[in-house]
TrEMBL record:
The keyword ATP-binding applies. It comes from Antricoccus suffuscus. The keyword ATP-binding applies. This is Biotin transport system ATP-binding protein. It comes from the Bacteria. Pfam families: ABC_tran. One of its GO terms (molecular function) is ATPase-coupled transmembrane transporter activity. SMART domains: AAA. Residues 4-225 form the ABC transporter domain. Belongs to the ABC transporter superfamily.
Length: 226
């Protein structure tokens, strides 16, 4: 697994401090991040692939300073948004998955082979020629995952990937995430999804409130919520 490091990370939007001294070293295969609305989870998750840079402090991946190596970091860290519409960029399902492999130096055949494998893995092969915007919510999230995984990142960060889905689709996406070879960091309000994770971090008011096994961290979080 990779080593994701936060060293004395602070972040403010204008004059509002939303992360207040985060120190974490994440090396586990499955890490969950939970916390109340507005506690800073998305901001923290976005720092792992440089979508947000800290106001102060350093985030690094295997020693690579994220803010100074954005391109290299983006190859290592795939990001799955809550709303897949935010990351579907091409007209058809197949083109969207292939788009990730642009500028990788792969031949047309290699792109086609890897795209086909990713579509197959996420059950989308038969939809390859379909307009992406016609997919259901669950299928769109599968497409977003396929488009990230086809690039073979070392780390997948998912920010509330199941929030917009019904229970069945949420379970399906979660099983897909659980089955990935990659190191996975998931931000979620669906606490039951984290039961088999290696580590769960509770963020409260921009700080690490608990950092423990899922059971202990989630107990602490539930107690905090009252
Ligand atoms: N681009 C931005 N500009 C200004 N303020 C922002 C921005 N993004 C987030 N914030 C604010 O920063 C705080 C932390 O937001 P963040 O999205 O990191 O929290 P979160 O824990 O992920 O919340 P939620 O569970 O509601 O998604 C919130 O008060 C939010 O309104």
């Amino acid at each position: 697994m990779s080593q994701i490091e936060f060293r004395n990370v602070h972040h403010a939007y204008a004059d509002r401090l939303v992360l207040d001294g985060i120190d974490l070293t994440l090396t586990e295969g499955r890490v969950g991040i939970v916390g109340a609305n507005g506690s800073g989870k998305s901001t923290l998750a976005r720092m792992i692939n440089g979508l947000v840079d800290p106001t102060s402090g350093v985030v690094s991946i295997d020693g690579l300073h994220v803010a100074k190596n954005r391109r290299a970091v983006r190859r290592k860290v795939g990001f799955i948004f809550t709303n897949p519409d935010n990351q579907i960029v091409m007209p058809t399902v197949g083109e969207d998955v292939a788009f990730t492999l642009r500028r990788t130096g792969l031949s047309k055949d290699q792109v086609a082979t890897r795209t086909a494998a990713a579509l197959d893995r996420f059950g989308l092969s038969e939809l390859a020629e379909q307009p992406a915007h016609l997919l259901s919510g669950g299928q769109k999230q599968l497409l977003a995952m396929a488009s990230v995984i086809v690039g073979d990142p070392a780390i997948v960060v998912a920010d509330e990937p199941t929030t917009l889905l019904d229970y069945r689709n949420a379970r399906m996406i979660n099983e897909m995430l659980a089955g990935l070879d990659q190191q996975v960091v998931v931000v979620t309000h669906h606490l039951h999804l984290l039961e088999n994770f290696d580590r769960v971090i509770v963020i409260e008011d921009g700080r690490v409130y608990a950092d423990d096994t899922p059971q202990r961290a989630l107990d602490a979080y539930r107690a905090l919520l009252g």
